[in-house]
From TrEMBL:
4Fe-4S ferredoxin-type domain boundaries: 338-407
A biological process term (GO) from this entry: lactate metabolic process
UniProtKB keywords: 4Fe-4S, Electron transport, Iron, Iron-sulfur, Metal-binding, Repeat, Transport
Family annotation (InterPro entries): 4Fe4S_Fe-S-bd (IPR017896), 4Fe4S_Fe_S_CS (IPR017900), FTHF_cligase-like_sf (IPR024185), Helical_ferredxn (IPR009051), LUD_dom (IPR003741), LutB/LldF (IPR004452), NagB/RpiA_transferase-like (IPR037171)
Gene Ontology MF annotations: 4 iron, 4 sulfur cluster binding; metal ion binding
UniProt KW RNA-binding keyword: no
PANTHER family xrefs: LACTATE UTILIZATION PROTEIN B (PTHR47153)
Keyword Metal-binding annotated: yes
All residue ranges annotated as the LUD domain in the record: 94-308
A Pfam family of this chain: LUD_dom
Protein name: Iron-sulfur protein
PROSITE patterns registered for this protein in UniProt: 4FE4S_FER_1
Length: 512
């Protein structure tokens, strides 16, 4: 056992675990559903300010880069067609990728679920006699809770991406799939570095400032010793090219390149949907991904490698293709389109719900539109957390407009809401009060919208209510559901004039 891991496990530094503290559970499993979790997140004023500032910056950068690309829609269409072809012939491309990876000296493994994937990673690491691994930022390994599993096997998993390092040292959870520490500001990061770095390796300089370059330097010095002694690295992959057996990782910091070149053994955990048919297809996605994710024309580090090269880089490489619910998603004609996702987070960056709620409210490593449309399909609808996700959406459709692979999120979300309604009807039966209440509301809406005379009658009733209230904003309503709904929303006063009345007063019908 390494000196650092011994200090962690034995508590010599007064810190027992790398995983989050009890007030910040290490995994998203067991959290309350979105409608309950979001109440606490909305009270975090500093976090909401951090999120608003960061989201605005990212959106503006993306818009600038897209505007300078006159063929943007053509490239989106090409990516859409390529990923659809992958979905139609996934079995063929996976077998082709396995054949070509093996030909290049890569050992290919197959994992049905998260538990099997974690076990394979753990077994490989233990066979090398190591008690620590370095990691490239990987949302797939977060999906499986790999860090927590390795810790249970007395193997420390060190995150080397700057944002992931901030999250890990802060005993926190990621809140974004591209910028995991987006909910933190620079002052908070400085406090975390000063408080925690000394517990897990080289401490941050006592006079470190909150300027980003100084914080980056502190992280670089802290991580360098881990890079230099690491024998095993763990990564994901942005893409695997079936025709050449090549793997692709794009990043912005260089930590990935360190993990891909220095350790003796590289283990890559990859979702089965990350396949591209040919090397030529990569051109399309290297134009879409950086512009959509971080507003860059190109990622500073683009690593493409084809297996083992003697005396150059890791001499033992493993690729684990993981299902973990993806074949179930592929079987759904509507839901399968989310497998086109390239994890750019452009949908998250424009989502008004995410910007206000933050990523921790979703109960999934995938927040925002991709989270609420993918996670319930991967995990199923048995848990209240997963049933609540499709309702964390205003159906504004901004996510579909910016998605580089043209996922129609609204169609998937409405499809999932229907599945949730059917599941709850089966579970609770027609005698359940909540189900009966929802059915009553839907029947009332059907009556109102089913006939224009019914609509007119309803409008006259609301006009009368507006006049009685005197054009004042809606306050507390002594009905539990309405009271909870209004507590977190700003609702305009009920109008004292209907649109039909306004039209009659201000427009003359053409009598021709």
């Amino acid at each position: 056992m390494s000196t650092e891991l011994r200090r962690i496990t034995e508590g010599n530094y007064g810190v027992a675990r790398l995983t989050p503290a009890p007030e910040h559970p290490g995994t998203f499993l067991g959290m309350p559903k979105f409608s309950k979790a979001v109440k606490g997140e909305l009270k975090l004023a500093v976090q909401r300010k951090n999120m608003r500032n960061a989201m605005t910056t990212i959106r503006n950068k993306r818009a600038t880069r897209v505007a300078e690309s006159p063929d943007w829609e053509d490239v989106r269409e090409a990516a859409y067609e390529i990923k659809n072809r992958v979905g139609r012939h996934l079995d063929y491309y996976l077998e082709q990728a396995e054949k070509n990876l093996t030909a290049h000296g890569v050992q290919v493994h197959w994992a049905r679920d998260a538990a099997e994937a974690n076990r394979i990673v753990g077994d490989i690491a233990k066979s090398k006699g190591v008690d620590e691994v370095v990691k490239i930022k990987s949302i797939t390994t977060q999906e499986t809770d790999l860090n927590e599993y390795l810790e249970s096997q007395n193997i420390a998993a060190w995150e080397t991406d700057l944002a992931e390092l901030i999250v890990q040292l802060g005993h926190d959870r990621p809140s974004h799939i591209v910028v995991p520490a987006i909910h933190r500001n620079r002052a908070e990061v400085r406090e975390i570095f000063l408080r925690e770095m000394k517990n897990y390796g080289r401490p941050a300089p006592e006079d470190v400032s909150s300027n980003p370059p100084d914080l980056a330097d502190a992280a670089r010095l802290h991580l360098r010793e881990k890079f230099l002694r690491a024998k095993v690295a763990v990564s994901g992959a942005n893409f695997i090219l079936a025709d050449t057996g090549s793997m692709v990782i794009v990043e912005s910091e260089g930590n990935g390149r360190m993990c891909l070149t220095l350790p003796d053994t590289l283990i890559s955990l990859v979702g089965i949907e990350k396949i591209l048919p040919t090397y030529d297809d990569l051109e399309i996605f290297l134009k879409l991904l950086p512009r959509s994710a971080t507003g860059e024309r190109m990622n500073p580090y683009n690593s493409v490698w084809s297996g083992v090269t003697p005396h150059d880089g890791p001499q033992e490489q493993h690729v684990i293709f993981m299902d973990n619910g993806r074949t179930n998603v592929l079987a759904d004609p509507i839901g399968r389109q989310v497998l086109r996702c390239i994890r750019c987070a452009s949908c998250i960056n424009v989502c008004p719900v995410y910007e206000r709620a933050g990523g921790h409210a979703y109960g999934s490593v995938y927040p925002g539109p991709i989270g609420i449309s993918l996670t319930p399909q991967l995990r199923g609808l048995d848990d209240p957390v997963d049933r609540g996700m499709p309702y964390a959406c205003s159906l504004c459709n901004a996510c579909s407009e910016v998605c580089p692979v043209k996922i129609s999120f609204v169609d998937v979300i409405i499809h999932l809401r229907n599945q949730v309604a059917q599941a709850e009807k089966i579970d609770h039966g027609h005698g359940d009060v909540e189900v009966l209440g929802e059915q009553g509301i839907m029947k009332a809406a059907q009556w109102v919208l089913g006939d224009y005379k019914h609509w007119e009658t309803t409008m006259y009733a609301t006009r009368a209510a507006g006049r009685v209230l005197g054009n004042k904003p809606l306050g507390p309503i002594p009905v539990p559901v309405a009271e909870r709904w209004l507590k977190y929303r700003d609702v305009q006063p009920i109008p004292t004039q209907t649109f039909r009345d306004w039209w009659k007063q201000n427009r003359v019908e053409d009598e021709r």
